[in-house]
Specification:
Helix content is 36%, strand content 30%. The protein has 121 residues and is of the alpha/beta class.
């Protein structure tokens, strides 16, 4: 996994248009975009107690999708994921700019990328 791999995923996801009414429909759209690009991603992968990441891509790239919620809660969740040995990088895909405000570039030693999607809901 390299920074270029994460950037390529962010570009692929961010370049698509999504029609969704809730987070699950957005997950479905992202899964379709990844599959169309030949990216193998497992969905709803358990990482341990109370930890289930939305997508896990080869190389340990975890993708978490959010359409709502408080920024503090989102980052607390990502901190839990970052402590898992199978997570090498995190990509937060969100529809809320507040989730990106003040976002750290690294959690522990895990690089974090934030992609804010426009439109939808």
């Amino acid at each position: 996994m390299t920074a270029a791999d994460v950037a390529a995923l962010a570009i692929r996801i961010g370049s698509a248009r999504y029609r969704y009414r809730d987070e699950l429909q957005l997950h479905d759209g992202i899964a379709a975009v990844l599959a169309a690009g030949g990216v193998t991603a497992r969905r709803e992968v358990p990482l341990g107690d109370r930890c289930r990441i939305d997508f896990l891509v080869a190389g340990g790239i975890g993708i978490e999708v959010k359409v709502d919620g408080e920024a503090f809660a989102v980052w607390r969740q990502l901190q839990r994921y970052a402590r898992r040995p199978d997570i090498r990088a995190l990509l937060l895909v969100t529809t809320r700019a507040r989730h990106a405000a003040g976002a750290p570039a690294v959690l522990g030693d895990v690089p974090v990328t934030v992609l804010v999607l426009r439109g939808g809901l």
